[in-house]
Every structure is written in structure tokens, then in C-alpha cells.
Backbone:
């Protein structure tokens, strides 16, 4: 830790710069330091550390060693990590950067959010700089349960979900990439550079299509990030996502001339057809009123464009994955549906649901009138 004499000497030296604006900044920092106004000093320093003249390893490390280390345990722990994030980014030896953050973690241990933040920063270095996927995975798994049980969304949540989504994208885990990507958008979309929205939207769209167990595509379709694809050469992806959301196999086939140019999608065509067939079955079930959910195999075969002998297998897969509930009547060649997995709905689907509710209310009213009419006959007999 820097001594008071060393700190005084360091500050005096910095104020001798020919840059008047920078010298004034140092004077203000010295005043706050001498008056022990650590909260104000933290705020001031968080901005100051981004000064253009300090953006190199030597200057930042001297700043930390000769000044910041003299009071780093007295300032806001989370603010300290924000300052040290800049310093760690300029440490050329990335293993040393990890060690720097590890030591920092001990200094901010009184604040959970600050500790979580240092771990996320370590994870970013492991992933982006050291290409150490194993250590990155450890950080993600270590923080996952802790953040889920935090009780409220903290500033660290968005940083964590960005780290996790980048890791899952790197290892080709489409499902977890999609889930973490959406969680990131829910936490930190306002802080995400808008010039990167289109790329993020495109990758999330592909992950929604390719991810195992991803059937709630409406959640992504409802997010404004997809608007960033409008007017671009990738706008077709939005229409393809809508086709999946509706289980529209005809549109899926029509668009093959476009999506077939994406190697990842073309290579997984069988998997994509299986998914859109399941979504088609879900949409067929959803559209029907509660008293009209006995669906003939022949109708399912027509909508999904599957051979008759594959329809029952499709229904069994949907039942096994919990997408629908019901019973198969092999003799009658129908499936009696009782439930369909809830999904985020668009306006058209909500409108259909409203129509079903209106019909249901009309049936109840009709039954009520019938009972009133028959009640007199029952009572008089």
C-alpha cells in the first residue's frame, strides 16, 4: 500500500503536467483525497480513469500502486471494481490481469455485487484473451445459482448473461446461448451498443431455430431488437421466425431458397422440420376451442405435410416433451388434446384467443338461458 508521503509526492508530480485541464483534475482529486470525501472521490475517479492520457498499462498501474491502493478499502467496493476494470484491461500479461482481479476480490468481499463483478471480469479474460473455456465455464457455473437466488436484478446480471451467452455461442450450445441472450436483453439492452443490435438479433434468431427445446419463439419476436434487422439483407430471418411461431410449414418450404443459403440451417434441415412440425401441432391445438380439441390424424398430416404413418410419432414426441397434453385414440385415429404449453403470443394469436373466449362465454350464456327455461318445467312437474 502506498504511504502518505508517496501519495503526496505522486500527486505533486502529476499536477506538473503541461495539460492544464488534466492538472485541474488532479487538483480536484487531491482535494477530495485530503478531505477524505471517499464517495465523491470514487465517482470522480471512475470517470477520470478513462482519461485519454492514462490509457496505457504503465500509467494505470502507477495510478493504482502510488495512489489508489492507499484508500482502495475505504471507497465504494463496486465503484472500485469499475475503476479496476479499466486497469485490468490494459495489463498486457492476461494471467497477471487475472491475479490482479483475484487480489481485488479479497478487498471488496464485504460487497457481494462487487465480488460477482470481479468474477465476471475474470471470466471475460479467460474467454476473450486466454481462450480458456474450462475456466470460463467454472466462472459461469459458480455464478449461475448465486445470481438466480439474488432476489433482484443487479448491475452484474447483465454482464454475467453477456459472458455466458458469448461462452455458449463459442461452444455451439444454441439453447443456452438463446436463453442467456434473452436474459441479457432483459437486463442491459439500453447499455448495449445499437450498432451491434442487428448482429445480436441475427445470432439469437438462429439460436432460436437450432436450439433444442426452444419452442417459445414469440418471446424473441416480441423484443424490439428484431427491428434492427428491418431494411437489412437479414430481414428474412424475422419472417422465418414468424413461420416457426405459427407452425407455418408452407412458408418454411417457400423460404428454403433463402434460409438454405445459411450452412448451419441447411445442415440441420431435418431437425428444423421436426421442430416446425411440433410447433404446427401446438398451434393447431391452441387455435381450437376447449370443447373442440379432438384432432384427426388426417388433419394433422395435412397441416404438417407428414406421411400418415409419422403422425402418431409426432404426437408422442409432443406429449413426451410436455408441449401438449392429451390422449391418443388409435382406433378412431384422433388425439384428444387437453392442454398446450403456454407461449408468448403475438397480436394475431391473442386475437384468436379472445375469439375463443368470446365463444366460450356465449356457450355459457346459452346454457344459462336454457337452464332458466327448463327450470320452470322441472319445478312444476
Residues:
Amino acid at each position: 500500500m502506498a504511504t502518505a508521503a508517496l501519495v503526496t509526492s505522486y500527486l505533486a508530480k502529476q499536477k506538473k503536467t503541461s495539460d492544464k485541464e488534466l492538472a485541474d483534475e488532479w487538483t480536484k482529486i487531491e482535494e477530495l483525497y485530503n478531505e477524505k470525501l471517499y464517495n465523491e472521490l470514487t465517482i470522480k475517479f471512475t470517470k477520470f480513469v478513462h482519461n485519454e492520457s492514462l490509457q496505457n498499462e504503465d500509467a494505470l498501474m502507477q495510478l493504482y500502486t502510488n495512489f489508489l491502493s492507499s484508500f482502495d478499502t475505504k471507497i465504494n467496493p463496486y465503484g472500485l471494481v469499475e475503476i479496476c476494470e479499466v486497469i485490468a484491461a490494459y495489463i498486457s500479461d492476461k494471467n497477471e490481469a487475472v491475479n490482479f482481479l483475484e487480489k481485488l476480490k479479497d478487498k471488496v468481499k464485504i460487497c457481494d455485487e462487487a465480488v460477482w463483478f470481479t468474477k465476471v471480469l475474470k471470466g471475460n479474460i479467460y474467454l476473450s484473451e486466454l481462450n480458456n473455456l474450462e475456466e470460463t465455464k467454472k466462472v459461469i457455473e459458480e455464478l449461475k445459482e448465486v445470481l438466480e437466488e439474488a432476489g433482484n436484478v443487479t448491475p452484474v446480471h447483465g454482464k454475467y448473461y453477456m459472458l455466458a451467452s458469448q461462452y455458449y455461442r463459442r461452444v455451439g450450445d444454441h439453447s443456452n446461448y438463446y436463453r442467456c441472450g434473452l436474459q441479457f436483453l432483459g437486463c442491459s439492452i439500453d447499455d448495449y451498443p445499437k450498432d451491434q443490435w442487428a448482429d445480436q438479433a441475427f445470432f439469437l434468431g438462429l439460436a432460436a431455430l437450432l436450439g433444442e427445446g426452444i419452442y417459445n419463439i414469440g418471446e424473441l419476436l416480441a423484443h424490439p431488437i428484431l427491428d434492427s434487422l428491418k431494411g437489412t439483407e437479414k430481414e428474412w430471418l424475422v419472417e422465418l421466425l414468424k413461420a416457426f411461431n405459427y407452425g407455418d410449414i408452407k412458408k418454411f418450404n417457400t423460404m428454403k431458397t433463402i434460409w438454405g443459403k445459411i450452412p448451419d440451417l441447411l445442415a440441420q434441415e431435418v431437425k428444423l422440420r421436426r421442430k416446425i412440425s411440433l410447433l404446427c401441432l401446438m398451434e393447431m391445438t391452441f387455435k381450437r376451442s376447449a370443447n373442440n380439441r379432438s384432432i384427426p390424424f388426417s388433419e394433422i398430416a395435412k397441416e404438417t405435410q407428414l406421411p400418415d404413418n409419422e403422425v402418431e410419432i409426432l404426437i408422442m414426441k409432443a406429449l413426451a416433451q410436455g408441449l401438449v397434453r392429451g390422449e391418443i385414440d388409435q382406433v378412431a385415429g384422433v388425439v384428444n388434446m387437453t392442454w398446450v404449453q403456454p407461449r408468448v403470443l403475438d397480436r394475431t394469436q391473442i386475437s384468436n384467443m379472445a375469439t375463443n373466449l368470446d365463444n366460450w362465454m356465449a356457450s355459457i350464456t346459452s346454457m344459462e338461458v336454457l337452464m332458466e327455461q327448463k327450470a320452470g318445467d322441472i319445478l312444476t312437474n
